[in-house]
Amino acid sequence: MPTAPHPQSTDELYQALQENRRRAYGRARTVTAEELVDAAEQFEEPAPLVRALLELQEAYTYGSEPRKSPVVFARLLTLFDEQPDVFDERLRHTLFWRFKWVANALRALPEIPLASLRQWLTEMRDRYEKAGLGLQPYYGQAYQLAAHTGEDTDLAYELWAGRARTRLSDCEACEICERALHHLAAGDDERALRTWEPVLAGKESCQEEPARSFSYALLPLLRTGRTDEARELHLAGYRGCRRNPSMSGEVGRHLEFCALTGNEARGLELLAENRSLFDEVDSPREQFDFLTGVEVLLRRVELLGHGELPATGFAGRTWTVTGLRAEVRERADDLAARFDARNGTTAHTDRRGARLDRAPLLDALELTLRTRTLDDVAPAAPVTAPTTRTAPAVPESLPELIVRARELDEQGHPDARACWARLRTLVAARDYTHPDDPAVGPLARLCADLLDDEAGRAREKDEFADAAALHEEAAGLYDDAGQPGHAAVARACALLATAELPAQGTDDSAGAQGTDTAPGGGADTARTEGADAAGAKRADDTRAQSTGGAEAKAAALTAAHASLVRLHEETPGLTPRQEARLLRLRATALGMRLQTSGDEEHIAPVLAEVDLLHTFATRHDIDAQIAGALLLRATTYAMSGDLPAALTETDGALDRLKAHGPAWHLPRALALRGRLQLGLQNAQAAYADLAEGLRLAADWPADTVDTSRLHSELAGACLHLGRPDEALRHLTRSAELDLRGGSRFDAYCTYSNAAQLSLDLGRVEDCIALLDSLLAEPDVAAGKPDDRLVAQLRLTRARALHAGDDLKAATAEFVALAAESAGWDDDPGSHAMIAAETAVLLGESGEFGRAREAADQALAAHAEDPRHEQLSNCLRELARLQAERQGPEGLAGARAFLADAGRIADEARAAGYEVRGRPLDAALAYEHGRVNAYAGEYEDALTALEEALALLGEPGAEQEHAGEWAECVRLAGAVEGIYLERTAPALARLDAAVSRLTALGHTGETEPLTALAARLRDEE
Q1: Which residues, 6+ apart, have CB-to-CB distance to 930 below 8 Å?
Q2: What is the pTM of this model?
Q3: Which of 43, 543, 590, 964 is 20 to 30 Å from 889 by CA-CA measure?
């Protein structure tokens, strides 16, 4: 299928070739290159065909199709022999360079006889000698053949490495890698790493380097104790080779590295990301390296007892780890045998065996911010507690188990759930026989108990409709069993769950206060004290809740409270615990209404209901409800904004819990106090409370306390205390707990925050690796989560790629995001921001035509939803880039960007917009000065800089303003003294500025001014 219009002229052909070079290597680029060769053959002159064939050979080489590369080169060589004048100096250089490509391709094909490989090297030598070219490149290829076969490597190495480099030698980075690999094969890790140093340090690079060297250096770094460096190179190196057919061997070595460092789960994740390599790699040598790395990983997973895990493998069937390993082993063994048969050695079998026999080098090395185990990636992985807790003892006797479950449930004890889970399994069995025991009661009551427990679980997942239906069903069974009190409580829970349903036509995600879900009134506090005005995490509580939705929900809660009061009053024969439950639900309904509405008039009714609950629970000595009342009172004060009062109440609740229990409420009470301390700006106290809450939470089942939220709030405390790395660990732990618990949206939001924090900390590769892992999640890849959330993840990744100097990948992602966000009719401001950032990256890439188009999109969106400061910054940067890159030729385009920035500044001023950074007018005047200076318009530049200084005003004590002023003076002095050659006024300007800044104590800002003044005096 054609991928591009058929060129009708050589100019069109050259343009098409240039466009194809922008594509990533792979089938799309290769197919287009093949079509362009066909198109080039229509022209009489041979030069277009030569260029098209060179592009095709490159596509085959880097698309891992070594069988086709020599065929194309044979055509080129024939053209060179027949029409050498067609090849200018650059084409001739390229032709002789690519003799090495053919030698490499032939080595990769075991069906090519060894004699043919040597014959090709002889051809290369003869051609080089005839052309008067140095033979170091030939000896380099001879050494690589020796290293490939495993024979006479030392002699071949000396013949190559001892010769001086020529213009046709491999690049420095590639030769460094070959020398290092020679030392590595000799078992000298330290010498290999010393040789690699320029590449590992980023001083030498090429198209394949440093990614190739990184992959080989990983294990030597581990063996020499340089684990941190190995981790960094894994993250950066894997990104440079993933999904690249011509670097599938490097991918295999990264998989091996994961297997040998306790990161088998990450290895399986990376394997899934590179699923295309099983079928796209046509190079047997690359297949051999890749499959051996895959087998190292799969073998390790199988040894750890996870052979049944699903694995990504060859297309056409589903695979388990065990099944895929058997297939991979057979294919890799066959490839090793074929290479050894061709070479007449056992080198490939020996090397493969050595890799497979390696023992793990580390039990565990934390490679990414998202550290997971094989248990985590297993289907339906259970949510586990942060630390090991002994499972509760469950009675063996069925009657005892039922009685025990009800006793624990009445107390609100977390271990009740283990009993209910066991009973649910027993009752579901076909041979279940219900005990004929008065203490147990009829089967209907047990079924009602199980439904009520299931309803509580649904409520915790915000599945309010399901919870309401289950509670109603339970109530009916309780009636059948002659338990009117339990039926009343179940109906009360159904009323509250129904009130929490989003109003029709709204997107109400609120529900932080929560409902009373545990029959004993204990576990219900998990959410009732969740609301606070202390500035802690409430993203899911307030997201997308419109004013209309809030009003509707508040009305529903008012009606639910009235119904609860009637139900309470009309139900006779309630036990004290049942009555306390109903009082608790009444207070909870009004607390949720207060949180939803924020209406001050709703405060007093909540406190009145809480007082009723507290008085009743105290009279009947119901500890769980006493503690619940105290915590409800504290959260009510918090929601009303009275944090000191809330803190006092929480202190009282904690004292009560420590003295009388129940102990499982302590982690939540400490979490509440921690949130309040954060709201009161006491981060140290908040940290202590939250950390203690997290420690105590480990004593109870994982679903007893919202451990994820504790980690999230600890992250906030750590940030306040200036401990960002610890904050990052808590954020990722919080997100992983949410993910494993099924709260995927919350998990992705938290991960997004963690990614941004890692980027802010300069941990660029950590950020990219985390986001790559998230974006590879099946539901994200399938587009199931919120599209804006996924866009945010991609946006942060694009910014990280930019920060990591991968301009090409960053620009491609920004362009895609700008196209998608153009359809966000409900959020044009975000599109304006994304389009503006896209324009800047296109400008950095030198594509100012496309940058202008993106900037126009941003301006159009800005007109609907203004983003004055951000858009002004981007337009000024675009102007600077165009003037700097294009000089006088780019001045008109740069001035057009500045004119747009000027209009935005005028709009901002008219709208009364207050900027956070530099004043827009001063920044614009400075940029006019810089742009004109780049374009050689020095008088205009000086005039603009004088205006900028006037707008900035004289510096004061503020260091940031002093720095901006000093930079403006420096540039004005440079324009005036160097380019306009007015040394005396320039020196006077600089000396006065130095005196002014020195008097204000800004000595650091004077250094560039002093240096410029010294230069001007030297040139006088």
Answers
A1: 880, 883, 941, 971
A2: 0.83
A3: 964
